[in-house]
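A sample copied in:

***
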Amino acid sequence: MMKTRLSLLLAAGVLALALPAAAAPPIPPLTQNGGTWASGHVQGVAVDRKGGYVYYSFTNLLAKYDFDGRLVGTLVGWTGHLGDLDFNPEDGRLYGSLEYKKDQAFYIAVIDVSRLDKVGVEAARSDLFRTVYLPEVAKDYAADLDSDGRFDGDTAKTADHRYGCSGIDGVSFGPAFGRSDGPRYLTVAYGIYGDEGRTDNDHQVLLQYDVADWAKLARPLSEAAPHHEGPAAPRDKVFVRTGNTRFGVQTLAYDETLKRWFMGVYQGAKSTFPNYLLFAVDAETAPVTGDLVGVPGPGGKDWEQGRVLPLAADGLKDEASGVRGWNQKADVGFQPIGGGLVYVAANSKVDGRQTADLTLMRWTGDAARPLVPATAADLHSPGASARD
């Protein structure tokens, strides 16, 4: 019996020696530069924590880097506006907002980044790049609110555009509103015109979609003949009163550790609001049907009703409006990676070309200074890991 047990232990030891050691998970960088490009400025970033990649949207160019700072590939060749990004670990795809305002065509780009391994891949000539149309956005963008029978186009100088909708930008995967558990859904934020002369544009608008069957809806990008294949309606539509901003939520991000949605914006200008740069909503706070203050109801009576989410009850507070938030830059890249760590992007120009500098930050919760630069020790602290 003893010899048999010893033989089994020896066999197990030999087998263990023969098997390759499990690869250590890639370590996220504390800082990274996203390259210098003849493009628009950086619009958003996404991180594949498990694979070890960072993705940068530069409006008309997508760049893929590994955690060591090596350029892996780029995707090019469209004239629309590629905005915020998020990586979905469930299907290995990258999702980003894509606008063609002239055509009233608003898409989610669905990109198979696992096969993006060279520089200069043309989106329209590659099956890596697919698009899904969002009719709910087009409907609000093209709404003829003044009933003159005319669509006034991409301008804030009109009474049209329901809720001030200028399209879409922020995207993120997260739980159903009012929960922190359960399936993850794609959440898309409206762009909203920064028009100080109207009152119906003081809410951020968030749409939520189940992408489980989107493979049936996704189509190749065709700028010559924009397609209209997409979900008939979102699974949910909610409103968050922050005060008007310039072009709505630029970066939307769900933080798995803090269990909250973050919204980074370009600063608004209405004097009746504090015009913070970053807002948050707690995930487990359920939407409640209520007044969309400033949005006229049917026939111009009272306020329109909608599913309203309150802002998180921390950060700075403006007593007059009740709005809470932080004066923290988060408008061109804000990506939580777990453990209270967040990548924040800064945009700048180098010899007339656009670049992005990414810094890993740690959430402090302090009203005046919510983020501080992370350290190597922060990366190895308990809980510093992303949801698989």
